[in-house]
Every structure is written in C-alpha cells, then in structure tokens.
Specification:
The complex is a heterodimer of chains A (769) and B (66). With 769 residues, chain A is mainly alpha-helical. Chain A contains 28 helices and nine strands. In chain A, the strands form two sheets. Chain A has a seven-stranded mixed β-sheet, sandwiched between helices. A two-stranded antiparallel ribbon of chain A has the order 1-2. In chain A, strand 7 and strand 8 form a beta hairpin. Chain B has 66 residues and is mainly alpha-helical. Chain B is rod-shaped. The longest helix of chain B is centred in the middle third of the chain and has 49 residues. Classes of the chains: A mainly alpha (769), B mainly alpha (66). Chains A and B meet through helix 3, helix 10, helix 12 and helix 18 of A and helix 1 of B.
C-alpha cells in the first residue's frame, strides 16, 4: 500500500536535518570567521527562505522534484549526475557530522559531570590514580564511537521502513520544540539581565578569518585586503546552517493531499523553526557565553555552553544542559536518519532512471525496503566517521561543498526550466516581471547568483571541502556513468525507465482485511499503463479520509494451472511492475493513498465482480474499452455478477471515457425505474382508494405490490400474453440484462463533478425499463 | 597586487606548469573573484523580495482550508 504523511511529519523529517545544524553551525562558523559569525548564520537562515522557495517550485513541477530530476530536465543527464554526486556528498556527510556532534555534546556533559563529581570528592582514588587526575573522556574519539552506534541504530530503522522513521522524527521534533522554547526564553532573560552586547556587526573590519578559513587564498594579497569580498567568504562558511533543504524535495513524494498546500505549510514550519533555533540561537550563544571559553571549550557544543552560562542556580543549569544533550542526541541522531532516508530517496530515484543498476533497488524480503542502497549509504557514513576521528570542524568544512553545489545546480536548472517549460506551475519563485510575452524570473535569478558566487568562492576558501568534495563527487559521477552504461547495454531492448519495486504479499483469498481497506472502497481496474485517465479521475473525486482506493489488475491465467501454483513472477511480471509504477506515480502526484492488487483470473469480468464483492466495494471504476462500449462493459460485468454465488452486494460501475466524461451503471438488483405517468397512475389509484373508508393504512407501495402479485399470477397462467404486453411497452429500449442499469445523469457527455458514489442511500434511477 | 601561492605545489608537479597555473589563479583572484562580489550583492538585493513574498505566501497557506 502507498501511504502518505502529514505536513507536520514532513516538516519534522526535514527539521531533523535542517534544525540539527543549530548544534554545530554556530561553532564552526565562529572558528572560521570570528565573533561576527552569528550575523552570517542569521543571514543564511533568512536566505534559506529563498532557497526553499526554489525547492517548492521544483516540487510543484515534479512530484519527485529533487536535484536529480530537475537538473536532468533542464540541463541533461551529465549535469544531473554531477549535481546528484555533489548532493550525495552532502547527504553522506550529514550523518557523520550529526553523529559526531551528538557525541561531542554527550562526551562534553560526561566530562562536566566527572569534574563536578571530582570537586565533591565523589571520584574513587583508584579511578583518580588511573586517569592521573579527574577522569575525562577523549571527546573526539568518544564522539566518533557514539556516531557509529547511532548510525548503526538508524540503519536498522531504515531497513525496517520509513513510516516508523517519520513517527520518530515527529516525536524528536516535539521534544526539541520544548527545549527550544525554554532555551530561547531563558537566553533572552539572561541577555536582558546581564545586559550582554550584540556580537560585532558583519562588516569587513570585524571579520577575523582563521588560516584554514581562507583555504587556497591564505597566501594571497586578497586575504589581507578582502574588503566586501570577505562578506562572501564568511557567508560561504555559514552556508552549512541551511543544509537539509533537499530533504524537503525527497519528502515531497510522501506528503498527503493537498500536496502543494501541505508542502508550503511544511516549508513555513521549517523556516520559522530553523530561523529561531539556528539563527537566533547562534546569536544568543555568542552574547551569553564569555569569549574566553566559547571557542576553546564550547566550540563543538555551543548550546551546552549556553545552558551553563544562563542566569540561575548551577544545579538547574546542569539539569538543563543534560536536557540539551538529550535533545541534541535525539535531533542529531534524527539527522542521521534523515540523511539515510534522503540518500535512499535520491539513489532510488537515480536507479529508477537506469543510472544505477536495478540490483541496488531490490526490496528487502521481509520489510520491502531498498536495503542494498541503505547498506551502501550507511557503510560510507561509518567510514567517514572513522576517518574524521570525531573532528566536527573538518566534517563541517567538507560538508558545505555538497550543500552549496547541490543548491546551485538546482537553482540553475529551475532558471533554465522557466524558459524551457513555460507552462503553469503551482508555485513560482517571486517576483517575476513580464515584458511582452517574456517572463523575467528576477527572484529565481537573484537566488541563483547568490548561490553561484558563494559556491565559486567556497572552492577557493574551503580547501578540505574542495579537495574531498571534488574527489568524492567525481568518484560518484564515475560510478553513475559506468553503471548507466552497463544498464543501457543490459536493457537495450526494454524500457527500464521509472520502475518501482514492490514488496509482493501473496494471499490465497481476497478480502478487505488482507488489503487493509475499509468497506465502501473504490475499486479501480487497470490494464494498460497508457490509459490510466480513469485512475486520475477516481483520485480526483475521492477523499482518502472517507474512501479507500484499490487499484486492481486482473491477470489472465490459462486453464489447467491452479492459482496457488503460479509463481510470483507469473502473477507479477515486468508488465505489472510498469503498470503499478505508473499507478503509484499518479497517486503520488495527488498525494493520495492507493492499495495495489493483482488478481489471477480466467475471466476478467468475474475477477472484477468477485473482487468488488469480497472487498465490499461501493464502486468499480474502469476506463472505456477499445473494443466495447460502456454499456457492453456494464453488461459483461452484470453477467459476471449474476453468475456469482450468494451473498453478493450491489455496486456502482463507472466507465470513464478518455475525455473524462463518465457513464454510471448499477450492478445487481436495483430500484426499478418508473415513468412519470406510471407514478401518476399509482398515485391516482391511491387517491381513489383513499375515498373509501377504512383504507387509511394503504400506501403507494401496497398498490405496486398488488400489481406485481397479479402480474406474477398472470405470468404463470399465460406467459405468452404477458410477454406480448411487456414487449409492446418496452420495444426499442430493452436492456440487455436486468443486472445493471444506467443512471440518467451520465447519458449525455457532460462532465460529472461528484465522486464515486456510495451504495447507500440509493439515488433515484431512471433508464431502460 | 602580488601573489604567493605556496600551496600550488600540492597540485602541480613541474615548475613550468606551476608558473603557468600561478598565472591562471592570479587571473582568477584578481578578475573573477571581484566580479563575484558584484554578482553576490546584486543577487542578495534581489533575494530580499523573494524572502518577503515567500514568507507571506507560505503563511497564507496555513490559513487556507483543505
């Protein structure tokens, strides 16, 4: 079953990545550019609104609107592979930097507790002697060890599946929000109480770059008189604060209907939270923590430092610090989770396009997840953690490479798409000016200029990032290119584009419980993946909160083979894979859940009727057959329904034509349709009867019952005579079967605006008599 | 403005190649990087309305009914 998540869950998943940077971005930026760093972090968080706007536009155009898809559409396969290579560098590093940062917070707290315990004489002498003083952990190594443990934990969570992961992300963000509210409130009170001054303004004379922060430029004159250029360098060192935007594009496909509106809501939540937590948090940290300890002691656990320098009793501060560490551990480890989900999404997307071989996407036998990709990602993350030996600054420096270049490629691609595809989008990065027929995307171009100039400057100033990022990206690019060629050769004769892998669950019987849908669901029959207009129609008209949609394909099987003997490959072949991939893709674009079902059958109509009956469907929706009219389709289905054993339920059969007009039929016994004059006749008889005393209890239905009883008696006495009279009355309008009837509102070609109908209450039906 | 790229030996083995590439980096540092200054600040000014309008429009989505 394809499931979707709310905008709160989507925001939580993204914030596990984006919000977590508050725990390390401030410290890394300050080490690079000096005490003015928080202003740049604030600036970056504001600018993140604009970057997010670009992502919302890309997601409004493509359900899976990540960098790869967008760049491929705009700039072609080579650029797409390059951009996704940079993005993978970003994702692979998100895990290690978050894990190591979490470890730094925990190791820092443990050391603080050791120191406090030692001051009270609570450390045993033997232990004191063993450590030659107060026991202290090697922070970097301990951090690396924590990172490894947490990465392995989330590896297992992702092997099990995303739904569980989004639950955890939401819970983590709820706890984090509590911490952020306390942190902000207490920090503002402390600042007001202490009268702490603001950090030095972000002007060139206040920038003090470390030698590492100038990278390849450190020996040039430009490093001595950088002027305004220094602003770009500082901005480039702070850009890692907005890492995680790509997660929004990856999560977009999971967001429930109405997709775009929910995406915007998620974007707003992310914007506010990250601006307050990362932006204002970094500013307040510099104002609260004294200069002499901020970088030396708290550079890698800035928020812990804030907790320790708040106004209040020491015990309370220590307790809050412990809370910060717990939250930091949760959100940073959540970022590891998001990085695995994001990388998995990106590589799956790339793999669907044939850039990675199909081998990578094989679903896990038990959990149905793409476990090979997850294994690959986590393996790389573990290697990075071990190689970094727990140094957050080195990881952070390298991290920014992937962040800025994936954004740059994405914004460039969106800019190109503005001219390449001029059609309507759900969202356009504002503002746009129209001169004649030409639209000039001022806002989009401005965002791209900032990103491009920052990315180029970073190439010069971030030595580690440039060397490591370029090497990693080129290696990934090489793997993608080789893998794509292998794939093309292997599947030269088959269209391998965009195929999902499905976890197949075999059931001997079909029922609502097995498919996990509610009674009154809508059964959409599919056969040809090029004609799925009726699925779109059903998705448009159905509210997933009230009605489930089951997409069913009746797979024809030959006589002589028992169904249970059919191998999975026979039932779910390559064709079904393509068909359901398209169905899933359509459902994703609406953000509505569907359940998929393949029914082996010897007769398609029997399979549909039996499935609708056992699933307790209220409606069956089909496309118009190329060989039959809608009425003929309904006749066949009606016949199949008649042949079914009891108990059987009525349902509505809707045939959606290619122009989206709909023919609706009722399958099964139905309320007979009466001509107006017949209704009047019954009424006249009733009025006449009413004139006689003692007939108060006689109703219209009693008259019809008597008439039918007499007709039945006459029919038994003289069939020919009754049939002669009946034929006289209905000549030229006889239905082919009494098991279906066509509804009047669909006789014309007008478009229906209502959804698939429920069985109860029955609407009045007229039609063939 | 004089240049002294000690780190270039990291990338280039031969002295001749090093001199040639010093010229390229020199050109980049003195001509490309200042140009980026203009692009960056022009972009930054242009990004202000993007930020404001995006904030307003996404906030409106919270008030819309499904």
């Amino acid at each position: 079953m394809l499931t979707f998540i709310s905008y709160w869950r989507a925001a939580a998943i993204v914030l596990n990545d984006l919000g977590s940077s508050a725990f390390y971005a401030g410290g890394i930026a300050e080490q690079a550019v000096g005490k003015s760093a928080p202003w740049f972090i604030l600036g970056v968080m504001l600018f993140a609104f604009a970057v997010r706007s670009v992502y919302v536009e890309s997601c409004s155009m493509f359900t899976r609107g990540g960098v790869y898809r967008v760049v491929k559409e705009a700039l072609g396969g080579t650029f797409a592979k390059l951009s996704v290579s940079a993005l993978m560098f970003d994702y692979i590093l998100t895990g290690p930097i978050s894990g190591v940062s979490a470890g730094q917070y925990i190791a820092g707290l443990i050391n603080e507790l050791f120191a406090a315990a030692d001051a009270h004489g609570w450390i045993p002498r033997a232990m004191h002697a063993m450590f030659h003083g107060t026991p202290q952990l090697d922070v970097n190594h301990a951090a690396a060890a924590f990172a490894v443990l947490v990465t392995v934990y989330y590896w297992w969570e992702n092997i099990k599946g995303i739904e569980e992961s989004s639950d955890k992300a939401l819970r983590v963000m709820q706890i984090t929000t509590v911490m952020v509210v306390i942190l902000m409130g207490w920090a503002i009170y402390t600042v007001l109480h202490n009268g702490s001054p603001l950090p030095p303004l972000p002007i060139p004379q206040n920038l003090h770059f470390s030698p590492e922060a100038l990278g390849f430029l450190k020996n040039t004159d430009i490093a001595k008189s950088f002027g305004l250029f220094g602003i770009i360098i500082a901005f480039g060192h702070s850009v890692l604060a907005m890492s995680g935007e790509e997660s929004l594009a990856q999560v977009n496909r999971e967001i429930a209907s109405p997709k775009l509106r929910n995406l915007k809501r998620a974007a707003l939540i992310i914007a506010i939270f990250s601006f307050v937590f990362t932006g204002l948090g970094s500013l307040l940290a510099v104002m609260i923590i004294p200069d002499e300890v901020r970088v030396p002691l708290y550079k890698d656990n800035l928020i812990s430092g804030m907790a320790m320098y708040m106004v209040g009793p020491h015990v309370l501060k220590l307790v809050f610090r412990a809370f910060v560490v717990v939250v930091g551990f949760l959100i940073l480890s959540g970022a590891i989770n998001t990085s695995i989900i994001g990388s998995n999404g990106v590589l799956n997307r790339v793999s669907e396009d044939g850039v990675l071989t199909d081998w990578f996407r094989r679903p896990h036998k038990r959990f149905g997840t793409s476990y090979r990709i997850i294994n690959l990602i986590v393996g790389m993350q573990l290697l990075t953690v071990i190689a970094s030996r727990g140094n957050v600054y080195v990881l952070g420096e390298a991290y920014a490479f992937g962040v800025i270049w994936s954004f740059t490629f994405n914004s460039l691609a969106m800019l190109v798409l503005r001219f390449k595809y001029k059609g309507e989008r759900g969202w356009r990065v504002p503002p746009n000016i129209k001169i004649g027929n030409i639209e000039i995307p001022i806002g989009l171009a401005a965002v791209h200029l900032v990103l491009l100039s920052t990315a180029i400057v970073n190439l010069f100033t971030k030595e580690v990032a440039t060397v490591a990022g370029a090497a990693f990206s080129l290696a990934f690019f090489f793997i993608f290119t080789v893998s794509e060629r292998v794939n093309k050769r292997k599947f030269a004769h088959v269209e391998q584009q965009m195929k999902e892998h499905f976890q197949l669950l075999h059931q001997d019987t079909i029922g609502r419980e097995e498919v996990q849908v509610r009674a009154g669901n809508v059964l959409v029959t599919v056969r040809d993946y090029n004609t799925l207009n009726h699925l779109r129609w059903a998705l448009e008209k159905t509210n997933p909160h009230d009605t489930d949609i089951v997409v069913m394909e009746a797979r024809l099987t030959g006589y002589g083979s028992a169904d249970r003997d059919l191998a999975m490959e026979q039932i779910f072949s390559d064709y079904e894979q393509t068909l359901f991939t398209k169905a899933v893709s359509i459902a994703e674009s609406y953000g509505k859940t569907i359940s998929l079902l393949v029914v082996p059958a010897r007769d398609v109509w029997s399979a549909i009727a039996q499935t609708a009956n056992s699933m307790e469907s209220s409606a069956v929706v089909s496309g118009l057959s190329s060989k039959m009219t809608g009425e003929e389709q309904a006749f066949k289905l009606g016949q199949a329904w008649e042949a079914m054993p009891e108990p059987k339920r009525q349902f509505v059969f809707q045939v959606v034509r290619p122009d989206s007009t709909v023919e609706t039929y009722r399958i099964g016994p139905h309320t007979p349709t009466m001509k107006t004059e017949d209704v009047h006749l019954v009424h006249r008889i009733w009025l006449d009867i009413k004139k006689i005393q003692g007939t108060e209890d006689i109703h219209h239905s009693d008259i019809v019952t008597l008439a039918l009883t007499r007709l039945s008696r006459d029919y038994n006495l003289d069939k020919d005579d009754v049939l002669k009279n009946l034929k006289k009355g209905v000549r030229g309008q006889a239905p082919k079967s009494s098991s279906f009837v066509r509804e009047p509102d669909t006789e014309g070609t007008q478009k229906r605006t209502d959804g698939p109908r429920r069985e109860q209450p029955m609407p009045p039906v007229t039609g063939p008599r | 403005m004089s240049t002294d790229f000690n780190k270039l030996s990291l990338f280039f083995d031969s002295t001749r190649a090093q001199e040639y590439n010093v010229d390229i980096v020199n050109l980049l540092v003195h001509h490309l990087l200042p140009l980026l200054e203009y692009l960056f600040f022009a972009g930054l000014i242009g990004a202000v309305p993007v930020i404001v309008i995006t904030a307003i429009k996404t906030a409106q989505s919270m008030l819309e009914e499904d």
